[in-house]
Amino acid sequence: MNKTERLYAIAEELRRSGRTGTTGPRLAAALEVSERTIKRDVAALQQAGLTIWAQAGPGGGYVLDPSATLPPVNFTPGQAVAVAVALATLPPGSPFAVDAHAARGKVWDALAAGDRERATALAARVWVRRSSDAAADAEPSADADAVPEVGDVVGRARVRLRVLRAVEQSLAGSRVLAVRYRDSRGEETSRRVEPVILAHTDGAWYLVGWCRLREGMRWFRLSRVVRADVTGETYAPRPVEEVGEPPAGAASVR
Description:
The protein has about 250 residues and is an alpha+beta fold.
């Protein structure tokens, strides 16, 4: 880490520490430099115009003037989880991976306490298996070489969006989901599902939940959900552990 990166990192640590601030030893340990280097860097930031209050001696430390930071950005719990999911699906070794992790932390920091708890609970119900060669979340049609009409593409996209929004709302609000599902043989059935998690593995997204028709936990590939409607019926969320072991390499995005 060069000096410019270190100065930025110190400013970010002070920003995240808020009014309580942090100490030189903590900064030195986090950045793996000496306390003397931290003192020089803080002095450089002060000379550059950043308002940092410094207090020497036991119990002392550094505090960044709140007026020197931007006001919090307003995110909903769902938006925060969306950012976490997007970052979690980055293949290993992706450029800006370190910055992506820091960005996720900033989004979480911007949430109010209650929203942060809801976002954390929701994120725990999203599993992602990182893969560098994941296939697209779609299945080839019978006529893969045919060029679809623009209207057909738009229509399918709208249906797809309605399905995804219904799944999101059902999972976040613990409301029973009514789905029309097409299996691998092309047969359609109507199901009532109590969503437990969303899982991404082998390049596809799955809704995993308690199927009332089959009276058991089932994995529904989202690309095969023809229709989904959120009902007014609520349910007590089942523990994530009831799903079983996640696919190899999968982890929640919280």
